[in-house]
Design brief:
The chain is mainly beta. The chain has helices at 40-43, 62-67, 129-133, 217-224; strands at residues 4-17, 20-29, 32-38, 47-52, 55-56, 73-74, 80-82, 85-90, 102-103, 114-120, 125-127, 171-173, 177-189, 194-198, 208-215. The protein has a six-stranded antiparallel barrel. Strands 8-4-3-9 form a four-stranded antiparallel beta sheet.
Length: 233
């Protein structure tokens, strides 16, 4: 059974859950098309490759067209589209799936489900140690000049005579793969294929996301239900 779909971040807003005001992120999820199926016999594990979004077939290489042969969408004699974004996800079984199958938002997610979202964080370019690692910098007095935001010494002298691996230094910041877990779905709109997710999600508007269900709404309700008191007490 599949518990993961691909999506795209659309932006942030706010909503009310009861009397509480909650920041939410609007995410477009699905529909996704199955482009490849891997089984224990052929590949040693069970998974499916999902496709999300669309792009013109003229922008797809010939080898990729062959790979996506069963997942192409024909709109007319002259217009054929292919999935834009491909990702492989693990599944427990593939009995109900085949290449070309369409998986919609409501087939996987419902209001109250707990999910984990994986995306690429915003890129911030080349940054110094103060912004990148939170260094306090050098002192601002006693004649220092031009050292306020520098990291200071990076070595240990003759022994070991090198910079140790993992030393925090200036460099590229952001554009990391980030997974945020235990987010809650507060609303589902099947007409626009969008969900509202409590809290923030990595990336900018338009960032491709992998949305995975951790627990269904029924499991969450059962977990939070009060335990029955022992009659013998």
């Amino acid at each position: 059974m599949i518990n993961t779909l691909l999506g795209k971040k659309q932006g942030m807003s706010q909503t009310f859950v009861g009397d509480a005001q909650v920041a939410v992120t609007k995410v477009e999820v699905g529909p996704c098309v199955v482009t490849q199926i891997k089984t224990e016999d052929t590949d040693g594990y069970v998974s499916v490759q999902l496709g999300f979004g669309t792009k013109s077939i003229k922008n797809v290489t010939k080898p990729m067209q062959g790979h996506l042969k069963g997942a192409l969408t024909t709109h007319s004699e002259t217009k054929v589209t292919a999935p834009r974004y491909l990702r492989e996800v693990r599944v427990s079984d593939t009995e109900d799936l085949k290449v070309g199958s369409i998986i919609n938002l409501t087939d996987v997610f419902a209001v109250g489900d707990t999910i984990a979202v994986t995306g690429i964080s915003k890129g911030k370019g080349f940054q110094g140690v103060v912004k990148r690692w939170g260094f306090s910098g050098a002192r601002r007095t006693h004649g220092q000049h031009g050292q306020a935001r520098k990291g200071g010494s990076i070595g240990q002298g003759t022994s070991p005579g090198r910079v140790r691996k993992g030393k925090k230094m200036p460099g590229r910041m952001g554009s990391d793969t980030i997974t945020i877990s235990n987010l809650r779905i507060t609303a589902v709109d099947s007409e626009t294929n969008t969900i509202l997710v409590s809290g923030s999600i990595p990336g900018h508007r338009g960032t491709n996301l992998i949305v995975r269900k951790i627990a269904s709404s029924k499991e969450v309700v059962a977990e939070n239900a009060p335990q029955a008191e022992n009659e013998n007490e």
